[in-house]
Design goal:
802 residues; 2 domains; single chain; Immunoglobulin-like; mainly beta; 22-stranded antiparallel β-barrel; five-stranded antiparallel β-sheet
Length: 802
C-alpha cells in the first residue's frame, strides 16, 4: 500500500543518491579523476545510437550508450586510446587527453560512407563476455531486413523466432513464446508504450514497420529491475528519431502491402520529424471477383515522432503509433481491432554523471465487432496511462546506478453491446468495466568488482490495486468453481450475493518484492561464465484458451479471485569468442517456475462472460531447457545456428483430496511445449550488386488434445477426449531463401533502389495449423482433416530511398 512513509523514503533515497553522486565528484577530483561523457549519433542524420561500445583498452573497462545515445565514464587523469564500435558502422580509435571533465559527442559513419578524418579499425560484432548481461538478444534492423519472410514483408517478430528459446504456435499464429511461457507473458514496448496485440491480419504480419525501427532488444532472463508486469520476457523496441540534417524518404512496394517513411529537420541540427505509413491492399483484388467483392481483409498503420534539442542538457520527444486491422464478410460481419500509443518524453542531464528521463505514456488496444446479420455491435479493449521517471547515475567507471518510479492506471472494457440500428431487437448492455492502479519503485546497480568479476543486482517493489466501480459476486466458501464428485467434473458455482464497490474503492490489493541478480566471471579475454536470477510479477491476465492470442481475447486485472502470476527464473551460461571474434558461442541453461498460471475447466465459455472466475482454475507452470547459439560474425558469409532443447509443463491439482484437478493433478504439456527447436539463418554478400539470405526452421509439433473414442447419443456421434495436450501436431519446418539486387548505378545518384526476390517455404511443406476430426458424410467413416495455411510462396518487392 502506498503510504506517506513510502513516498518520503523514496524521495530521501533519490536525494541521497544525487548527493552521493555530488560527493563522488569531490572525491574524484581529490584522486585526479575526470569524466568523459557525451552523445553518440549517426554522422549523416544525427540519429542517436543505442548500445554503442566505448572501450578503454589499457584499463580493460568501458561503457555503452543508453537508450538516448548518452554515455559517461570516469577515469584517472591520463592519455587514453578510446575505441568506439557499433554494428553496421565504422569503428574509430581516437586519443583523448583526460586532464579535465570532457564532453565529446562522437559521430559514427555507416559502413557505406568513406571516413577520412579518423582511423578505421575492423568492425566486430563479437559477444560481450564481460558484461553481466545474459539471456539477452539484440538484432539490428539491417540484419532483420536481410531475412526472407512470407510474402516478402520484412517482419520484426518473425525474425526473433530464429533466436534460441523463442517459438510460436505455427504459421499464421500471432505473438511469440519465450522459454515455454505464454504469449501474454511477454511485455512488448514501442518507445516505452505497451503494445497489447503485436500482430496484423491474425498473425501473418507484425505491427512494427521496419523502416521506423532503430533498436530491438529481447530479454529472456536477467531482466533489469526497471522492467516489470510480465512473467516471461521483455521485447524493448525504439523508433528512429528522424534526421535533423536533411530530408529523406524511403519505402517499399510489395505484392500485398507498401510502406513509405519521411524524415527531416524541423530546425537543422536541433529538431527533427519522422512520419511513416504502411498499408496492405490485397483486398482490392477481391473487388475483381463477383463472389468476393463485398469481402475485405487489410491493415494499415502510422508511425510518427518529433524530436527537439532545447539545449545541451534538455531534449524533448513526442512519439506515437496508430494501427488498425479490418476484416469484413459481405458487409454483414465486420471486425476492426488495433493499437494506439502516444509518449511524451523529456531527457534531462543533471550533470555529466546523472541522466534522467521523464515519460508520459498512453496506450490503447481496441477490439470491435459489427454483426449486422444479428443486429448488434460489440466493443471491448484496454487502456493504460503511465507516468515514469528514470535516472541513470554513472558514479564511477566500475559502479553505476539505475533507479526510478512509475505508475500505471488501467481502464478495462470487457465488452459493450449496442444495437446496430433502431430496428434491432438487441438491447444495450455493458459488462462491468474494471479499473486498476499499478505503481512501482526500483533500483539497480551495475558493479565491476574486479577485472574478472562483474555484477548487476537490483530490486523492484511493485504494488497493484484492483479498483471499483463494479459489482463483485460473492460465493459460498469463496469458491466460484465447484466440483461435482458424481460426474467428476468442475461446474460454475451459483453466487450467494453481490457487493458493489464505488469508483476508485479498492476491491483487492497486492504488493511484491522482485529481486534481480546477474553475475559474470571472465575466465580469460575470450570466454566467461554467467549466471542470473530474476523474479517477475504479472498482475494482468489474458483470458484465452487458444494456443496463440486472438484479437477477441480479453485482458483482466488480478482481483480477489484471480491472483497475480509469480515467476522465478534461474539461468547459467557459458560464452566464448573464437578467432578474434570471428565466431561466438553462447550456451545457456535455465529453469523457470510460474505460480498462479490460469487454466480453464472443460467446456469453458470465455466470450462475453460476466463471471469469468466461474470457469478458471489456478495452477502452476514450469519450464526448463538448454539453448545453444553459434554465430559467425564476420566475412561475406555470416549468420547463426541456434538449437533449443526444452520442456514446458503445467499442473492444476485439485483443491481438496476429492477433486481431480486437470489431468488428475499430474503435470501435462503446456500448449507452448516444443522439445526441439532448430533455427539457421545466414546472409552472403557476393558483391556490391548481389546478396543472398536463407532461413531454416524446425520445431517439434504443438501439443493438442485428440479424441480417443466416441459414443452415440440420440443418433448423434459425440467424440470423447483423452488427457489434455497428450497428443501433438506433426513437426513444423520450412526453408526460406532471398536474393537482393542493388543496381550499381545507385552510387552515382540520390535515388537508391533495390529489388528483393524471396521464396517462403521453398520445398512446399504443408505444415499443419490444426487437425480436425469429423465424420465423412458420404461414407460415414471417421476422418482427420489437416488445415495448412501456406505452401510455397514466391514474392518480389522493391525498396527505395532518396
Amino acid at each position: 500500500m502506498i503510504t506517506k512513509q513510502n513516498i518520503a523514503f523514496f524521495i530521501l533515497l533519490l536525494s541521497s543518491l544525487t548527493s552521493f553522486s555530488q560527493d563522488t565528484n569531490i572525491r574524484d577530483l581529490a584522486k585526479q579523476k575526470f569524466t568523459l561523457s557525451g552523445i553518440i549519433t549517426d554522422a549523416n542524420s544525427n540519429e542517436t545510437l543505442i548500445g554503442v561500445n566505448i572501450i578503454i583498452p589499457e584499463l580493460k573497462t568501458g561503457v555503452t550508450t543508453n537508450e538516448y545515445g548518452f554515455y559517461s565514464i570516469t577515469l584517472p587523469q591520463g592519455i587514453y586510446a578510446v575505441q568506439i564500435s557499433y554494428l553496421g558502422y565504422q569503428n574509430i580509435d581516437e586519443s583523448i587527453n583526460l586532464n579535465q571533465n570532457i564532453k565529446n559527442n562522437f559521430k559514427l559513419f555507416s559502413n557505406e560512407t568513406a571516413l577520412k578524418e579518423v582511423i578505421i579499425i575492423e568492425n566486430k560484432t563479437k559477444t560481450d563476455i564481460r558484461k553481466p548481461e545474459m539471456s539477452v538478444n539484440k538484432l539490428s534492423i539491417s540484419t532483420i531486413k536481410r531475412m526472407p519472410v512470407v510474402l516478402g514483408e520484412v517482419d520484426v517478430l518473425k525474425s526473433i523466432l530464429l533466436l534460441p528459446g523463442v517459438t510460436n504456435a505455427g504459421e499464421g499464429a500471432s505473438g511469440f513464446n519465450v522459454r515455454g511461457g505464454g504469449a501474454d507473458q511477454n511485455l512488448i514496448l514501442l518507445d516505452e508504450a505497451t503494445i497489447f496485440n503485436s500482430s496484423h491480419v491474425f498473425g501473418f504480419f507484425s505491427v512494427f514497420n521496419p523502416d521506423a525501427i532503430k533498436d530491438l532488444k529481447l530479454y529472456k532472463g536477467g531482466i533489469p529491475a526497471r522492467f516489470g508486469g510480465r512473467a516471461s520476457s521483455v521485447l524493448d523496441i525504439y523508433q528512429k528519431d528522424g534526421s535533423s540534417k536533411g530530408f529523406h524518404v524511403n519505402g517499399g512496394i510489395g505484392l500485398i502491402s507498401s510502406r513509405i517513411l519521411a524524415e527531416g529537420p524541423l530546425v537543422k541540427d536541433k529538431g527533427s520529424f519522422l512520419i511513416g505509413g504502411r498499408s496492405s491492399y490485397a483486398h482490392l483484388f477481391l473487388k475483381l471477383s463477383e463472389e468476393q467483392k463485398n469481402n475485405a481483409a487489410y491493415f494499415y498503420d502510422l508511425n510518427a515522432k518529433l524530436s527537439y534539442k532545447l539545449n545541451p542538457k534538455n531534449n524533448l520527444y513526442l512519439s506515437g503509433y496508430f494501427g488498425r486491422d479490418v476484416f469484413s464478410l459481405n458487409k454483414s460481419f465486420t471486425n476492426i481491432y488495433g493499437n494506439s500509443t502516444l509518449n511524451l518524453r523529456w531527457n534531462h542531464l543533471f550533470s555529466d554523471k546523472l541522466f534522467s528521463n521523464l515519460s508520459l505514456i498512453y496506450s490503447d488496444y481496441y477490439y470491435g465487432l459489427d454483426l449486422d446479420f444479428v443486429g448488434f455491435k460489440w466493443d471491448s479493449g484496454i487502456k493504460n496511462y503511465n507516468i515514469k521517471y528514470d535516472f541513470k547515475n554513472y558514479i564511477s567507471d566500475t559502479f553505476k546506478l539505475n533507479y526510478g518510479v512509475n505508475a500505471i492506471y488501467y481502464d478495462f472494457n470487457p465488452g459493450t453491446i449496442k444495437p446496430s440500428d433502431a430496428n434491432s431487437g438487441i438491447n444495450f448492455d455493458q459488462l462491468d468495466k474494471k479499473y486498476a492502479f499499478e505503481p512501482a519503485l526500483y533500483i539497480n546497480a551495475e558493479h565491476e568488482i574486479s577485472d574478472k568479476i562483474s555484477l548487476s543486482y537490483g530490486l523492484r517493489y511493485s504494488m497493484f490495486y484492483r479498483l471499483g466501480q463494479s459489482t463483485v459476486n460473492i460465493y459460498e466458501n469463496g469458491n466460484p468453481v465447484t466440483f461435482n464428485p458424481n460426474l467428476q467434473i468442475y461446474e460454475k458455482a451459483t453466487p450467494t450475493g453481490t457487493k458493489f464497490y464505488d469508483k476508485n474503492k479498492v476491491v483487492e490489493s497486492f504488493n511484491n518484492l522482485e529481486p534481480r541478480f546477474s553475475f559474470a566471471y571472465q575466465i580469460n579475454d575470450d570466454q566467461s561464465v554467467k549466471a542470473s536470477y530474476n523474479r517477475m510479477i504479472q498482475y494482468l491476465q489474458l483470458i484465452s484458451n487458444t494456443s496463440s492470442p486472438t484479437p477477441l481475447d480479453v485482458w483482466t486485472p488480478s482481483d480477489n479471485f484471480i491472483k497475480p502470476q509469480i515467476a522465478d527464473q534461474v539461468a547459467l551460461g557459458y560464452f566464448k569468442n573464437f578467432k578474434d571474434g570471428m565466431y561466438s558461442l553462447e550456451v545457456e541453461t535455465y529453469y523457470k517456475k510460474v505460480k498462479n498460471r490460469l487454466d480453464y475447466i472443460d467446456g469453458a465459455n470465455l466470450i462475453a462472460n460476466k463471471a469469468i472466475e466461474q470457469v478458471i482454475l489456478n495452477g502452476q507452470l514450469r519450464s526448463y531447457g538448454l539453448e545453444v547459439m553459434l554465430k559467425k560474425n564476420e566475412g561475406k558469409l555470416n549468420g547463426w545456428i541456434s538449437y533449443t532443447l526444452s520442456k514446458s509443463e503445467q499442473q492444476t491439482p485439485g483443491r481438496t483430496a476429492v477433486e481431480t484437478g486437470i489431468n488428475n493433478g499430474a503435470w501435462y504439456n503446456s500448449v507452448y511445449d516444443k522439445l526441439h527447436n532448430i533455427a539457421i539463418t545466414s546472409s552472403y554478400n557476393l558483391n556490391e550488386k548481389w546478396s543472398f539470405g536463407a532461413n531454416f526452421s524446425l520445431q517439434t509439433g504443438q501439443p493438442v488434445t485428440y479424441p480417443n473414442g466416441q459414443y452415440d447419443y440420440l443418433g448423434i456421434t459425440v467424440p470423447s477426449y483423452g488427457l489434455r495436450n497428450k497428443n501433438r501436431l506433426p513437426a513444423y519446418h520450412h526453408l526460406d531463401i532471398a536474393a537482393t539486387l542493388t543496381p550499381r548505378k545507385n552510387a552515382d545518384r540520390n535515388w537508391k533502389g533495390e529489388w528483393v526476390f524471396s521464396i517462403y517455404n521453398l520445398y512446399n511443406r504443408k505444415n499443419a495449423a490444426s487437425i480436425n476430426f469429423r465424420q465423412n458424410t458420404d461414407t460415414g467413416a471417421n476422418e482427420a482433416v489437416k488445415t495448412s495455411i501456406f505452401g510455397m510462396v514466391p514474392a518480389v518487392s522493391y525498396n527505395f530511398k532518396f
